[in-house]
Specification:
five-stranded parallel β-sheet, alpha/beta
Length: about 130
């Protein structure tokens, strides 16, 4: 199974989903909802852009991102023990200048570090060059 965390239907998210569909027929997009209005808008626009691709929206009332996503990955591993791997495709912005990395990609870096020691979980980056 391949998971793609998405915050919106941006170009990078759509390209990461297309990449994930090349890897597997079992792709799930995951959105951690810290804003219910944004989550509803994503849910409404999703069928037009992503078609039949499943979207899981995880409610996070305390505006947390990492712990709800990690809990979802752990739950997937428990409910699908026969799956060899869960692949997490992380869409990441690659800024034009190295110093811009201080502002971008911190969430992806924290997520990679958190998933590093989870058995059966593989993390891959999907870079998107900012110009």
């Amino acid at each position: 199974m391949v998971l793609v965390p998405v915050s919106s239907l941006s170009r990078i998210a759509r390209q990461a989903l297309a990449f994930a569909e090349e890897l597997s027929r079992r792709v799930v997009a995951v959105h951690v909802a810290t804003d219910t209005a944004q989550a509803e808008e994503l849910r409404r626009e999703w069928p037009e852009v992503a078609g039949e691709l499943p979207l899981v929206i995880i409610e996070s009332p305390y505006r947390l991102l990492l712990s709800p996503l990690l809990a979802y990955v752990d739950a997937l591993r428990e409910t699908h023990p026969d799956d060899t791997l869960v692949v997490v495709v992380l869409p990441e912005f690659v800024p034009s200048f190295w110093w811009d990395n201080l502002l971008h990609n911190q969430t992806a870096l924290r997520l990679k570090a958190a998933l590093l020691y989870r058995p059966g979980v593989v993390v891959t980056s999907f870079p998107y060059l900012l110009r």
